[in-house]
Amino acid sequence: MPKRLLLILLWGFLLGCGQTATPPPSPTPVPPTSTTAAIALLPTHTPTTPATLTPIPSLTYTPTPSPTNTPTATSTATATPTITPTPTEEPSYEVKLAAVGDLMFDRTLGRVLRDGRLDYPFAGVVEYLINADVTVGNLETALGTGGEPAPKAYPFISPPETAESLARAGFDIVSLANNHALDYGTETLMEGIGLLRAAGVEPIGAGANAAEARRPYIIEVNGLRLAFLAYANVPVEARSFYDVQIWDATEDTPGMAWGTVERVVEDVSAVAPLVDHVIVVVHAGYEYVKGPSNEQYNISHAAIDAGATLYIGHHAHILQAIEQYQNGLIVYSLGNFAFNIDGPPETAIIHITLGQEGVLDWRLFPAMVTETGAPRMATAEETARILADVPLYITQSWVPRE
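The chain above was modelled as a monomer; its predicted structure follows.
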């Protein structure tokens, strides 16, 4: 009997006996928040100045880069000695990447967007997103105009306006490799991919077939070539026993990229020689469980060992540990970010600076999810509390660069 089926049967027995399941499997999802406030009365968030949000020193790290000669731009030869050539501006070879966790625009935020308030969801945090060179998140919902919901506990669908709202806030890339991207079927998945690309936001981790779902998205920013890959590897849903692994894209059917160690290593190894950095975005772990799961640990370490620089995770709905492993950085879970849900409100934005040598530095900016699902930056008191609660693992001694 397949191991996954055994887990489902065991889980069902435990739930039937009234026992509390511990991972594996994941806890029962928290029911949605009931919101009665009228859209017109929703508050407008005022961004907090960065000066009050400086992380405590123990959560700001700068690694030592390996010595590397920075390429110099070659001057263009002049046509005659009397003409001075215009020098070509040399790229900085540094990229600031901003990353957040789960984004979901059903429920309250969906009604806000349908009402035309496209800037509302990120008004309280936009300066921390739009000023990065590349901003990445996880779109935890189907996106489009309709379709039939999957027979699972919480199917989500966000309105078409979501794509433009994301673009206005500075998002460049969103992962669709998660347990909600196909909540309304493959046709809605493909509709959402089209909406995102039309708005200038690139979806990763899903597509019309397996090749598209696993295809790396490669961009060049400030002289560095970056490759993004995305995968999902989540437990069977507790309440409905729905297994989203059936959404794994095939050679001729749309779907998402299911992440195994073997697949991630194969894909990272193939693209790493072609770029400066590989960023792996993974939806994995157990909901509301503080510690990373075996899948998170194994996939993240395998990705770094295969040549990735960053692992960015989510699905737990809470912040989890950050680990400096080898020459890479592992962010196990960034929690919810824009998400109307009755769960812990603590979240964060991480800024990571990449150079030719690898991760030059990183910084965690705590935030809070409000009752409408819109995030705001944390106060000084909330910042200290959140940072003190984020486990940090260091497996290499890093000191500030000169």
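DSSP finds nine helices and 20 strands in the chain.
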